[in-house]
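Reference record
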Amino acid sequence: MQPGAMARLHHLALRTPDVPRLVAFYREWFGFVVARESLPRAVWLALEPGAVLMIERASPDEPAVPLASLELAAFAVSAHERAVLREKLVHANKLEAETQHTLYFRDPDGRRVGASSYAF
């Protein structure tokens, strides 16, 4: 990589004891579509062109997501999409926190996720 060049997201892999449950969460809240499915081991959800969110089955001896972890995967949404999502999260009592541009909530495994309309 050239100095000053920016890498872009290729894939993000999340491990879980329940692949279908986590896939359903990301499809429901973010509208991601399945790009590849090899159940019960993994499902890939399409992100931006050329990037995927991999939901992979965790082995029984893997540690759980740390409780109250502030690590975050934030996904880009428009301001309108953020407003619609906010209403859904409030109605479902899932909104954990928010800033002017970003909503924060947890996936079923306790992972912190965000929906952000901040323009870099």
